[in-house]
Each structure stands twice: as C-alpha cells, then as structure tokens.
Batch of 2 targets.
Target 1
Amino acid sequence: MKELIKKLVECIGPSGFEHIVRDVIKDEIAPFVDEMHVDALGNLIARKGTRKESGLRVMLSAHMDEIGIIATHIDENGFVRFTTVGGVFPRNCPGGRVRFMNGAQGVIGTERAESADKAYTIEQLFIDVGASSRTDCPVKVGDVAAFDRPMLDLGNRLVAKAMDDRISVAAQIETLRRLKDTPHEVYFVFSVQEEVGLRGATTAAYGVDPDVGIAVDITMTGDTPRGTKMEVALGKGPAIKVRDGRMLSDPRLVKLMVEAAEKAGIPYQMEVLEGGTTDASVIQLTRAGVPSGCVSIPCRYVHSPSEMVDIRDVEHAVRLLLEILSNPILL
Amino acid sequence: MMEITPFLKKLLSLPGLSAYETPVREAIAETWRPLVDELEVSRVGSLHGLRRGVAPEPRPRLLLAAHMDAVGLMVSGMIDGFLRITEVGGVDDRILPGQLVTVHGRRDLPGVIVQPPDFLLPPDQRGKPVRREFLLVDVGLTPDEVGKLVRTGDLVSFAQQPFELPGDALVGHSLDNRASVGALTVCLDELQHMSCDWDVWAVATAQEEETFLGAYTSPFDLRPDMALVVDVTHAKGPGSNDYRTFGLGKGVVLGWGANIHPGLYKAVKELAERLEVPFQIEAMSRHSGTDAYAIQVTAEGIPCMVLSIPLRYMHTPVELVSLKDIYRTGHLLAEFIARLKPDFMQKITWEEPS
C-alpha cells in the first residue's frame, strides 16, 4: 500500500482543485467498482455492491483535497504574495517549498522579523519562484499551490504533506478493492473542499441519501513531547470517534464499530477530539438525518508539511472498515 | 389542569446528554403517548408526536419543538485512575469543582469533580478558576479498576437531584430545556379538551446543545408549514439584571428578530394580549440561540416563532425556573393552536407587512 500512498500524497490538490488526485483515484478503482460518477461539485462517487435484504445504503467519505495557498499579488520583482486555502499555519511556512498546479515551484520567504519572539502572519510571507520581475514570473494571481515534499518512508512510520486526508483515500481505495461480499450498497465518496468547510460531503450526502454515514479521516494524537492532551497515539490502531469539535458520533454506530473491532481482534482506540471535524459532521445533518460516525487514522503534526502516520494503523483501519461493511448494520 | 412537577422532576433525574437522549426520550414518550395520535423516533433520535387536526386534507401542519438533550461532560482521558473531562454542549467551567457526577462507564459510577489545591498551582494560575483541562473526576477506585470500568468517550452527567424552593421555583440540571418539554406537555394536555384544525407535530429534538441536529433534520422529514420553538432564556437574578435578562415568573418571553416571522410573532403577541397572559419581549439580533435558527432554513424555509421561559444559572446543575412560567407558556401555545384556521398561512404573507 506504500506505493499507492506515495502516489496519492505527492499529487497537488488544494480545495477546489482536486482533479489531479481524482484522476489518480479513478484509475485505481475503475476495475473494482459497479459504477462511478463525478458530481456537480467534483466529488468522485463510486458504488460497490447492491442492497440485499439485510443491507443498507452506506456512504463512506474521505476527502481528496489538501490545505494549500493561492496567489493574491505578484510584485514588480516577481515575488508572489499569497493567502491560505484551508487551515495553513504561518508558523509552518517559512522555508517551505511549494508547487503550483502549473508545475512552477518556489520557496516561502519572510520579511524581516519585527521581533524575535513574535510569530509571522501570513501577510509577512511571500513565495520566491526564482523570477526577477512580474513579467517573467510563472505564477499569476489566482494560481494555487500545495506544499511540495516527497514522502519519507521511516519503516512503519510514513511522513508526507497531505496525509490529511490522502491516507484515508488510500484506506478507502484499499477497502473498495478488498471488499468482496457485502449486504450493503456502499458508496465510496472521495470528497472535495473538506478543508474549506466540508462542502463536498454536504452535497454528496444529499445526492447519495445514505442510511448510514462513515467518514474516514485523520485525527490528532497526544503522544508527542508536551503536546496536546489527548489519548490517541500513533500505532495503537484506528481511532473510533466518539466526538470532535463539531459532532457527536451516533452512539449506536460507535458501539457497532467497537464490537466489530473486538470481534475481529483489530486494535482500536477511542477518540475524543476537542477541535476540528470531518465530513461526518455534515453527513449527519443531511435531509432527515443520517446516523454517522468516523474511523480515524492517528496522525502527528496535522496541517504541517510533514504529517506522520503509522502504516499499521492504516492496515487496521482497512480491516475495520471491511469488517463493518461485510456484516449487517443493525442500529 | 395537569400537575407538571412530578413529570419534570422525573426528567431532571435522568441524564440524556446530547446524542444520548434515549433515557429522557423514553420518559417523554411515556407521558406523551396518551396525549397524541402517533409517536415515532427520528433517524437521529428526536421524538415526534402527532396530534391530528380536524380540517380537511391537506391539513396544514405545525411543528412545536423543544430540545430534550442536556449539557454535561465526557471522559477525555485518564491519569492514575483519575478522569480528565471535556464538555458535551456548553458547560460553565467555573462551577465544576466540587460537583457530584455520575460516570456512565461499563456501569454507572458516582464521582466528584476535583481540582488541584491552589498552593500547588503555577504562580500565574493561583486565585483563579481552574481551567477544565486541569480538572479531574475522582471515582474512588484504583487505576486498575477504573481502567476496567471506564474508557475514553464515556459520558459524565450531573448527579444533582431536582428540588423545589419555596414560592414556585424548581431547581435542577437540564431545566434547559426540559422546562420547555414541560410546557409542550402542558399544551398537549390542554389540547385534549379542544378541537384544532391543524395537525400538530410535537417534537422533542436531539442535540440542540451541539449541532442543532434534531432541528435541521426533523422539519426536513415532517415539512411543517410553520414552527413554534420553545426554549429557555436568561432570567434576571443576582448580577444579571440588564436588558439581556427577563423577569423570573413574569411570563413567557416572545422572541423578535430576523429568526422570527413577523406575521407569526404578531399573531402570538396579539393573542397573549387578548388573553391577558403576561409576556416579555426579547430582541434577537441574529442567532436566536435556539432550534429555530436551524428550522428556519430547512428545506424551502419555515416561518418560525420562539417562545422562551426565563431561567437562572444556565448550564449549571442548579438551573432555576418558575413553574408559573411553564404553565403560562403551555397555556398560550394551546390557545394559539386551537385558534389556528386552515388559511392562517395565507394571512401572514409578506405582501401585508405587520
């Protein structure tokens, strides 16, 4: 699965500009799906399985987009000013490299610091693409870029930009491929624009009209020095979300996930995340309401250009999803 | 007239935190069953009770909504057998230390919320309310026993039992918003002796304190022509006496603002005047802070009105209301509903602004 992960995380796909990622996913899943289409917002929606008597219409959602930047101004010397697409932290930017959709690359520079102990604001940063004037700058206002880093393979631990949420895209692709026998009509949604307000999943869920919704996304961890106070750790299995900043998982679904993990002997953790949310929060609010939950993959350094996951957690997340989808879902 | 206090005390003795409303929903269903023609539970846990009207089909439909979920706490981690906590809904952290709670683990465990002694805190933290991240729940068991009985994500609810104070005050946790569920129940009871043209869907909504989940989803399902939402608002009390607060026991509070349909507001207000039901007016500049905010924009849009019951000490385990306000709210709702004519919606059109 490492090869697939590498292929996915090294694509550029900030919110609203997911087509490169979408094309990769399409190629990967085409032989395994019963049907697929791209909806009006750009979500890739693939169906596998038909609904049997004990089955439901289940929607899974992993978002294709990543955080990035958009050029707002090119100065006369060819420096690119920019603003963020999604939750980019200025503290993670200086020295970072970016790649624009058109292939142009650059490095993020900083203005002279006002004082050593004050963090930069995004307005104090610029991108140097190696140009010397506005006219020879390969970037135009409105051009979009993502962080540019090759994936780092540390054995069980993998580091890359856009692990949020390509690691879950990889898990969903793997689940889709391995899913053999299901009583459900399963819709694998690869959603757009999660990082700018969960916009893709909002419409995908309305369109699919599922009986149950499960987001697959990353979650933060509390296992780094003097970090966030949180129980989730890397390498201890997928996290079953109980709550996050914007939703409470359906308790029946939490129970079902815990029982599925116990039954199949899959390691798991309980997730209580105090900030941030996933596609599940908007799936839940769709139409007359959709019982929803989330299988999370623990991830360190979220929204930095070096997000770290443990490949064993990904494997176990796939196994957990397969276990859930292969059996009746009784709420 | 129905005696509402025993029913309310029963509701206030149950947990029913957001997303985990089952215990309180079952208690409400039991009381509503003889008062409605149909009862159902929505896909996300709201309770729907239909009281059928008598006008010919297609009958207009009224949504009468009050949320039943309560704020509380959740286990977010463990340190040496003590439990770290986060909130479900919004809890006033300042009042947490010393509270008795129930930890809903593999079995219910009594516990108490504790804070580090002041003299052991870092100097810049002394003499101030302790932030929630430093508060812990002590259930009196060894770390091993706690590990077996409790896990991250378990609920923690206030163990405060309801009680009456002299006068007509009722005190307890989750009077926000079970006081309003009480008002809906008074209304349904009064309607037993009245004939109504409209269908009335009495709905106890889920998860208002978190995401307005019930308020977004139930009206999508039921497609009412309009909605009356009942919630609580801040009552005047110690240290809260300005324009943002309302007299306790001084009557139902009528909401006014962009979240409210002016025609519907006018109709409710005129009836309150005519029946000499005391009322107060709350200006809601934007978000009413109630289910109405979600209901208004559901499906093709739903005209809303908000009626609030004044309540002191919101989001603490000792919320306090006047029973009189609950009865009056229920009474006004019943009188309003009984007078609704099938063509009411045509009378509150935007072409004739009030």
Target 2
Amino acid sequence: MNVIEELGLVRIDDRLIHGQVIAVWCKHQPFTRIVIVDDGVAADPFMQEVLRLAAPPGLQVDVFSVEEGIKALNQSTPDRGTTMVLLKSPQAAKRLYDGGVQYNALNVGGIGSAPGRKNIFKNISASEEEIAILKYLMDRGVEITLLTVPGEKSRSFSDLVGKL
Amino acid sequence: MINIVLVSHGDLGDALIRATEMIVGPTERIFSVPLLPNESPEGFGEKLAVALQDIKGEETLILIDLFGGTPYNVAARQVLKGNVECVTGVNLPMLLELVMSRDGASLPELAETITQSGREAIKNLGPMLNK
C-alpha cells in the first residue's frame, strides 16, 4: 500500500484565513500551501479572490468543495507536509475523513457562537451534533487539540469530552 | 454627506471615533461595527448588514482595521456595490482627514486620498530627528 505523508495541519476555523492563521501559524510552521475545503467558498469566486489577495506572497491558496478536496488531498504531493487544510466546521472534517482523507491529528482553532452552540473552550463553541462528530473522529484515533494559535493554552478534546 | 462605517476587531472602531471627536469635536454619520471575540463570521456579517441597511443607497466609505483579518473577509464584498468603497488599515490620521474633507470630494477620490494620507502619516522619528 502506498503510504501518504501526513498533512502539515488540518484545522477547523470558521474564519478560514485571517490574522491568527497568517500572522502566527505561518510564522510558527513553514507552510507553503493553504487548502480551503468548503462548499460555500468553492462556489464563490469573489470570496476566493478576497482570501487570496490577503495571503502573503509565496503561500499558495487552493479552494475546493468537499468532494474535490477528498480527491485532491488523497494524492501524494511533495508539499503535503507543509500544507494547512482549513475547514469551517466539524461536519466538513467528518466528510473529509469519511471520504478517505484519514488525517491523524485535528486542530480546532475557532468556531464562533451561534444559536444551539455552547462555548466549550476559549473562542470555540459547538452544538451537540458537532461534539458528537468530534467524538466520532476521536474514537477513530484522530488526536483532537483545541488551540487558537501556537503558544496559547491548548486543551485535548479527549480530556474535555467527559465534562461536556 | 458620505457615511463612514468602521469595521474592526473589538473596540478599536469606537475608540477611533472617540479619538477623532477629541480632536475635531462631534461628528455625524460615522458608525462602528465591532467584531466580538466569540462572534462567528456569519454573525458579524449579519450585524454589518443591519448597520448598512439604515444607510441603504447612500454613499458609504467602509474603513477596515486589518487587511486579511475577519472584518476584511466579511466586509470586502460590499465594495461590489456602486456607492460603497472599502479601505483597509485605518488609522487616526485617515479618519481625521476624512471627517474634515468628505464634503465636496467624490467617494472614489476620497478613498484614494485617505489611502495615501494614511501611509504618509506613518513616520520613523529617529532618522528624521537625527538621532
């Protein structure tokens, strides 16, 4: 079997590319490529332009629907280790995983509050359904860490899950 | 009169309005839409839409605090409207220039003018004062 290298980072952040991702993550780890996997942004060329415009030179930004993302991320490319995958929700993370992109680690970096969601850690909120999805991924061996940016306090989802 | 809408991380927009008024006195038609720490981009987008509803159809200059930040991601689409311009990296000199010169200039001219004056207002004092 062909072993595919681990992705640099798989992150759930409903803000996608923003100050924390560019200013902190990209200085902490030498990412060369950001892959946004989101059906909404994939169908919105103007939003893609807005996101690409603000990315630093030298950082490639690709945008895929979940279906396209599964195909693209299942390929062994030389830049996999320096690729950051950005997703808006646990739902997208599950679709990607079930579609065959079986990452070992997942960073939950930001999910804003909304009706039906409760705050679980710092700037991270989740609904019952989203918590159940994170458990589903955890049960399959994905190591889930709640962390906004490197250097900040982090929390392992497996430590938190019993208290939710 | 051209409307000014500040979109910023937290209280920055409100603080910039207060600082401007400290210098030039009370101002009109200037609004702030803050992004709160736990707010989702969608929630912030709805708040911005409500704020812009009141000034629907009128000329509006949106001042965004950080190029590439969430307020930018959410507000940038407004620039597609014919009577809206967006400028990022807002600072106090830009806001001062704007409130003093917004009568008389066209909206695209005004956006360009404050983009230049915002840059020119940034000085490294050491070399200028022969340190």
